[in-house]
Prior knowledge:
Elements: H1 4-26, E1 31-37, H2 41-56, E2 60-66, H3 71-83, E3 89-92, H4 102-108, H5 127-138, E4 147-151, H6 158-167, E5 171-175, H7 181-190, E6 193-196, E7 215-218, E8 222-223, E9 229-230, E10 241-242, H8 249-268
Parallel strand pairs: 1-2, 1-3, 4-5, 4-6, 6-7, 7-10
Antiparallel strand pairs: 8-9
The protein binds NADPH dihydro-nicotinamide-adenine-dinucleotide phosphate.
NADPH dihydro-nicotinamide-adenine-dinucleotide phosphate is lined by residues 128, 151-154, 156-158, 175-179, 197-200, 219-222, 249-250, 253.
Amino acid sequence: MKEIKEYVKDKKIELKEKFDSFKEKYDIEPSLVIVQIGDNDASNTYIRGKIKDSNELNVKATHLKYETMTEGELLSLIDKLNNDKDVHGVLVQLPLPKNISEEKVKRRISPLKDVDGFNEYSTVVPCTPMGIITYLKEENVLIQGKNALVIGRSNIVGLPMAKCLLDANASVTIVHSKTPLSELKDYVKKADIIVSATGKYKMLDSTFEFKSDAILIDVGMNRDEEGKLCGDLEKGLPVKFQSPVPGGVGLLTRVSIFTNLLKLMNENLNK
Ligand code: NDP
């Protein structure tokens, strides 16, 4: 399997060509608006990455950053962006301040512009599962008939990930914080593909038994004892492939924003 960094590099070349030919064919400049409320450190880093990707892909990125905002003001801004024909993708960076309901915001972004895929009526898959499943398929990982284990059941990662694997004909098990450790160990032992999305450092470590040809995908973004960025999994587990953190799923997630933007732009051409 290609390392994720290499895979993403190639993927970006492919996407840039697609955006460029879209621009040339329809004379439309692809445009993404990123809305941020507050000054969360992690959000600042993620947004810098998204803007860098936009520049590389020739997509116009507009970063609207506000110190504070009421829920009503944010919803009105989303309405304005939903109605702006020169804006093709709208992304509201999470987490939001406590005075704003994330659920209301996710529902308010038009499914036609929802690059994150968080709206329940969205036609695109949320970016993290979308990036992972595309990577596995394009790297020819056999999914059909395999045992896939998804650790975590959030609406933005665990559940859509399980659905993607199921759609690719894996036999899928979802576990969560209430799954007894002894059961988890049994599931891990049998799994061909494991996606861990818990936010728990060393969720799986060398005390677990793995299939030697297992594929481990680490979604977690945590800090280790020294404060360094790390995933859910102990490094160097005895398997065929383990995705790194940093330099792994985060890159796949970022690139999927643009795969989704392109898909939405194509779908919306005649609307
Ligand atoms: P949530 O907190 O919404 O969900 C975490 C899930 O993990 C829950 O379903 C929870 O179970 C489960 N869980 C927690 N502890 C355990 C445990 N001990 N055993 C089994 N399951 C457990 O997080 P997200 O899904 O939003 O994100 C998960 C992680 O992925 C985070 O570290 C986040 O930062 C990272 N992330 C990374 C992205 C990337 O691009 N790299 C993108 C999105 C997220 P329960 O439901 O029972 O509470």
